[in-house]
Design goal:
The protein is of the alpha/beta class. The protein has 2 domains: 9-249, Type I PLP-dependent aspartate aminotransferase-like (Major domain) (Aspartate Aminotransferase, domain 2, 3-Layer(aba) Sandwich); 251-375, Aspartate Aminotransferase, domain 1 (Alpha-Beta Complex), CATH 3.90.1150.10. Helices cover 40% and strands 14% of the residues. An 8-stranded mixed sheet has the order 1-9-8-5-4-2-3-12, sandwiched between helices. A 3-stranded antiparallel sheet has the order 10-11-13. The chain is globular. The chain binds pyridoxal-5'-phosphate. The site of pyridoxal-5'-phosphate has 15 residues, from helix 3 and helix 4. The active site is at residue 191. GO terms for molecular function: pyridoxal phosphate binding; transaminase activity.
């Protein structure tokens, strides 16, 4: 059996090596490392794939979130509602811009709670940032309705959910990240669509916002050396775009491989009393950026050590809620009650999840997880 890894980028690369290497070589031969046709080609292919009007490639997912917030004309002290159970970038950029992150609770599907959003709204609230955590869309229909009622912007954090599809109650289907005013994604290597370094993109159907975002990402310029607003320098480079062009063609197949692994885990583990398998919402497909269990009366540290000794890596996403982090537990932020987030942080465990897991590995992992659960009860 091959060594079990949390993420297997090497195995995935081996299968597309010729095409990827050729794409990289073309960029090197052209020496068009920045703003080349490759970046434009990838942008157009991603627009078509997602069914969105504008894709603006940027340097990484964190920049995507920051530039999106910069484009909305917010002022210091405006409140941005974010889930407390997420990767830090979501709140970090709000704090950096002098906005007030307002941390709210999630539900047991790991996505922002609609009730919690409603309770957190004040006259200063300007933005809601739903994070489609672990690859499943938040309840966007309800969140879009709230945004409309209270005249708020929505920035979707789709860094973990590219390729996932949301179905509205009238049957309309939309891609993750393309439902709000703006959507953000990351091409960090381990993401569902990952490059070989840093990369990210912003999605929007709004022409005016797209132009503003493009300008901010390029030093606030529209005409060269004429700066209309304070911007940043954030771009996807041509080598990353060449890699992403190849990988985008395989994205559906990659997500299907993740779903097949998740189905295997589900079948084997749903009978265990000591864990809850990931909840799947009827309105969203799940692209399983992570496969995350909720443990019940299990010594998590001991279980992780036990699995590690058996050759099975596991991870805790995320061990500390954002509202309890040193950098965010202060008067510049606000936190609502987040009991679900606090419980989840103490009992979630993510199993190996990537495109290359085979049946032998999955059989071994689930067998050992079951044994490990019985051996580490509290
Ligand atoms: C990865 C990630 C980001 C940040 O993306 P980078 O490309 O690493 O900057 C933001 N939000 C979430 C939920 C992520 O998973």
């Amino acid at each position: 059996m091959n060594t079990i890894q949390m993420v297997d980028l090497k195995g995935q690369y081996e299968k597309i090596k010729t095409e990827v290497n050729q794409g990289i070589q073309e960029v090197i031969d052209s020496t068009a490392f920045i703003k080349s046709g490759k970046v434009n080609d990838f942008q157009r292919q991603l627009e078509t794939y997602l069914g969105v009007k504008h894709v603006i490639p940027v340097g990484n997912g964190t920049d995507a979130l920051q530039i999106s917030m910069m484009a909305l004309g917010l002022k210091p002290g405006d409140e941005v509602i974010v889930p407390s159970f997420t990767f830090v970038a979501t709140a970090e950029v709000a704090a950096l811009l002098g906005l007030t992150p307002v941390f709210v609770d999630v539900d047991t599907d790991f996505c922002i709670s609609v009730e919690a959003i409603k309770q957190a709204i004040t006259p200063k609230t300007k933005v809601i940032v739903p994070v489609h955590l672990f690859g499943q869309n938040a309840n966007m229909e309800a969140i879009l309705a709230i945004a409309q009622d209270f005249n708020l912007f929505i920035i979707e954090d789709a860094c973990q959910s590219i390729g996932s599809v949301y179905t509205f109650s009238d049957g309309r289907k939309m891609s993750s990240g393309c439902m709000g005013d703006v959507g953000c994604t990351s091409f960090f290597p381990s993401k569902n669509l990952g490059c070989f370094g840093d990369g990210g993109a912003i999605f929007t159907n709004n022409d005016e916002l797209a132009a503003k975002i493009r300008s901010i990402a390029n030093h606030g310029m529209t005409v060269r050396y004429y700066h209309d607003q304070v911007g940043v320098n954030s771009r996807l480079d041509s080598i990353q775009a060449a890699i992403l062009e190849v990988k985008l063609k395989h994205l559906d197949e990659y997500n299907a491989a993740r779903q097949a692994a998740a189905d295997f885990y589900d079948r084997e583990l749903e009978i265990c009393d000591e864990v809850s398998i990931p909840k799947r919402n009827p309105y969203s497909t799940h692209v399983f950026h992570q496969y995350t269990l909720i443990l019940d009366r299990i010594n998590r540290d001991a279980l992780q050590k036990w699995l590690n000794n058996a050759g099975i890596p596991s991870m805790i996403y995320y061990p500390v809620p954002l509202h309890l982090q040193k950098a965010y537990k202060n008067e510049r932020c606000r936190a609502e009650n987040c009991p679900v987030t606090e419980t989840l942080s103490s009992c979630v465990l993510s199993l190996p999840m990537h495109t290359e897991l085979d049946e032998e590995q999955l059989t071994f992992i689930t067998k050992k997880v079951k044994e490990g659960l019985s051996a580490n009860r509290i």
